[in-house]
C-alpha cells in the first residue's frame, strides 16, 4: 500500500509541476470566451483518446492472464510469439487504415472521425470480452475460440485497431484550427499529459482490473486453480464502457473549428494559411504529401519512433517476469507501477519537446527530435549494460530495476519525439486543411515500425518453455538471451537521429508565402 501511495503522489506531483510551469505564448491573444470553449473541445477529445489507448494496450495486459491458461496442446494460450503475431496484425491494420481514414477525416471532419473511432473500438473490445467469456466460462463458442485462439484475437484486434486509427487523425484534425503554430508546441505538452494518462490507464488500471476482478470466490476458474478468468474478461469490458461514456461527451461538446462552436476562426499560420480554395481530391493531396521531402523524412523518423517507443513499453514487463528466477525484478517498484512510470515519461518527454521547440528553436521540430534521439541511443546502450542487473534495494518496501530505469528514460525521449512529430509537425506541414492525410502518412509509418518491431521480437526473443509442473524454464529465463532487445533499439535509434538532423531547419511554408 505504501508503494501505491508513493506512485500516485509522484504522478500528481509531475502533473502539477508541469501545468504550473508551462510558459505563456507571446503575441497570441485569445478572448477568455474562446479559451474556455477551446478547453471544452480538447479536454473530452483528449480523454477519449486516453481511453482509446486503454482499449488498445489492454491486449498486452491480457497476455499476463492468457499466458497462465493452457491451449488444447498444453502450451501457454498466448506466448511471446502469439502476442507478437496478434500485435503485428493489429498495428499493420492500424497503419494501413490511415490510407483510407486520413482522406475520410479531411472530408467529413475530426468530430465524426472521433465518434466513429470511439464507437468502433468500443464494439471491438466488447467482442474481445465476449470471446474471452466463452473461453473461460465454457460458453457456446468455447471450443472454437480455444482451438483458433490466435486467429480469433488477431481478427478482433485488427478490427479494434482499424477503428483506433481514427483517434489520432481526429485529435490532430480537430485541434489544428484551434491552435496557432506558435501555440502548438506548448499545447502538445498539455495534450501529452492526457495521452500519457492513457498509457497509465492501460497498464496500471489494466493490471489492477485483472487482479481486482480475479480476486475472491466469485472469479471464474481456469484450469481448476487459476482465478484469473473474470479479470481477463473485465480488461476488455471496462474500456468498452468508458469509451461509450466519452462517445456521448464528444457528441455534445466536440466541434471541428472555432466557427462551428460559435467563436471566430483565425489564421493558424500553418501550411494551409492563405489557401481558401476548394478541398483537393484525396489522391492529389496524397501525391503532394508524398512528394514533400520534409513529410517523407518525418515519416521515416517516425518509423524509427514506432519501433523504439513500443520496444520497452510492450516488452519490459514481460522481460522482468520471465527472467524473475534470475534477476528477481518481478514486483519491484517499476514493475508494479509500469503504467505510472510510462505516464510520467510521456508527460516529461512531451513537455521538454514542446517547450524547447517553441522557446528555443522558434517552433522548429527537427532540432528537438535530433536531440531526443541522441538520448534514445544513449539510454538504449545503457539498457544493454544493465540487462543482467538485479533490482537495487532503496528501502524495505521499494526496489528499483536498473534496466527499468533506463527503459523509462529511453521512453521519455522517444515519446517526446513522437508527440512532437506526429501530433505537432503533422499540423504544421499538413496544414489544418489536409492534416488528416498528413497524419495518415506519418502515423502509418509509426505503426509500420511498430509492426516490424513486434514481428522481429516475436522471432528473435527466446520462447517460453515449461516444466511438467507448469513452471517457466529454459533460455527465456536468462537475461543474456534478451540482448537482441537493446541492440536493435541502439541501431534504429542511430538511424532516427541521423534522419532528424535532415529536417533541422524545416518550417511550414504558408500558401500566401508561396504566391509571393
Layout of helices and strands:
Elements: H1 2-21, H2 32-66, H3 80-108, H4 110-136, H5 142-147, H6 149-175, H7 181-214, H8 229-253, H9 282-290, H10 293-322, H11 324-327, H12 333-336, H13 338-359, H14 366-386, E1 392-393, E2 399-400, H15 402-460, E3 465-466, E4 472-473, H16 484-501, H17 511-515
Antiparallel strand pairs: 1-2, 3-4
Return residue spans where pLDDT drops below 50 for at least 5 consecutive residues.
216-226
Major beta sheet, specifics? Answer: 2 strands, antiparallel
What is the level-2 CATH architecture name?
Up-down Bundle
Based on CA atoms alone, the radius of gyration comes out at 22 Å
Descriptive terms for the model:
516 residues; Growth Hormone, Chain: A; two-stranded antiparallel ribbon; 17 helices; mainly alpha
Amino acid at each position: 500500500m505504501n508503494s501505491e501511495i508513493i506512485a500516485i503522489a509522484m504522478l500528481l506531483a509531475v502533473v502539477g509541476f508541469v501545468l504550473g510551469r508551462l510558459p505563456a505564448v507571446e503575441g497570441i491573444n485569445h478572448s477568455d470566451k474562446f479559451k474556455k470553449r477551446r478547453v471544452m473541445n480538447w479536454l473530452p477529445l483528449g480523454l477519449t483518446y486516453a481511453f482509446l489507448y486503454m482499449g488498445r494496450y489492454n491486449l498486452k495486459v491480457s497476455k499476463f492472464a492468457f499466458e497462465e491458461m493452457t491451449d488444447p496442446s498444453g502450451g501457454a494460450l498466448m506466448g511471446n510469439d502469439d502476442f507478437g503475431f496478434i500485435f503485428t496484425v493489429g498495428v499493420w491494420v492500424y497503419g494501413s487504415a490511415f490510407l483510407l481514414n486520413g482522406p475520410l477525416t479531411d472530408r467529413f471532419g475530426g468530430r465524426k472521425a472521433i465518434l466513429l473511432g470511439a464507437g468502433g473500438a468500443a464494439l471491438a473490445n466488447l467482442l474481445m470480452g465476449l470471446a474471452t467469456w466463452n473461453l473461460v466460462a465454457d460458453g457456446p463458442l468455447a471450443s472454437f475460440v480455444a482451438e483458433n485462439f490466435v486467429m480469433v484475437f488477431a481478427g478482433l484486434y485488427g478490427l479494434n485497431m482499424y477503428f483506433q486509427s481514427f483517434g489520432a487523425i481526429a485529435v490532430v484534425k480537430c485541434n489544428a484550427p484551434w491552435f496557432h503554430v506558435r501555440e502548438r508546441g506548448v499545447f502538445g505538452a498539455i495534450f501529452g499529459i492526457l495521452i500519457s494518462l492513457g498509457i497509465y490507464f492501460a497498464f496500471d488500471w489494466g493490471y489492477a482490473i485483472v487482479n481486482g476482478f480475479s480476486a475472491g470466490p466469485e472469479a471464474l476458474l481456469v484450469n481448476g486453480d487459476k482465478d484469473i478468468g473474470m479479470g481477463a474478461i473485465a480488461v476488455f469490458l471496462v474500456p468498452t464502457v468508458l469509451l461509450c461514456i466519452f462517445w456521448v461527451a464528444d457528441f455534445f461538446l466536440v466541434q471541428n473549428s472555432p466557427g462551428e462552436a460559435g467563436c471566430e476562426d483565425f489564421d493558424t499560420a500553418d501550411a494551409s494559411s492563405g489557401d481558401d480554395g476548394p478541398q483537393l481530391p484525396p489522391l492529389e493531396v496524397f501525391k503532394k504529401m508524398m512528394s514533400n521531402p520534409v513529410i517523407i523524412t518525418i515519416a521515416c523518423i517516425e518509423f524509427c519512433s514506432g519501433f523504439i517507443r513500443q520496444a520497452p513499453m510492450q516488452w519490459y514487463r514481460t522481460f522482468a517476469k520471465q527472467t524473475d528466477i534470475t534477476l528477481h525484478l518481478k514486483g519491484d517498484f517499476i514493475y508494479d507501477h509500469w503504467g505510472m512510470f510510462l505516464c510520467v515519461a510521456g508527460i516529461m518527454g512531451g513537455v521538454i519537446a514542446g517547450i524547447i521547440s517553441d522557446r528555443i528553436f522558434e517552433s522548429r521540430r527537427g532540432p528537438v527530435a535530433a536531440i531526443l534521439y541522441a538520448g534514445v541511443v544513449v539510454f538504449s546502450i545503457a539498457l544493454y549494460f544493465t540487462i543482467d542487473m538485479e533490482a537495487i534495494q532503496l528501502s524495505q518496501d521499494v526496489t528499483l530495476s536498473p534496466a527499468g530505469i533506463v527503459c523509462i528514460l529511453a521512453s521519455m525521449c522517444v515519446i517526446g519525439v513522437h508527440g512532437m512529430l506526429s501530433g505537432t509537425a503533422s499540423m504544421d506541414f499538413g496544414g489544418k486543411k489536409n492534416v488528416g492525410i498528413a497524419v495518415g502518412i506519418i502515423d502509418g509509418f509509426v505503426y509500420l515500425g511498430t509492426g516490424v518491431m513486434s514481428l522481429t521480437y516475436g522471432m528473435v526473443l527466446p520462447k517460453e518453455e515449461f516444466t511438467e509442473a507448469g513452471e517457466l524454464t529454459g533460455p527465456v529465463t536468462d537475461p543474456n538471451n534478451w540482448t537482441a532487445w537493446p541492440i536493435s533499439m541502439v541501431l534504429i535509434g542511430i538511424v532516427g537521429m541521423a534522419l532528424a538532423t535532415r529536417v533541422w531547419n524545416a518550417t511550414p511554408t504558408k500558401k500566401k508565402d508561396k504566391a509571393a
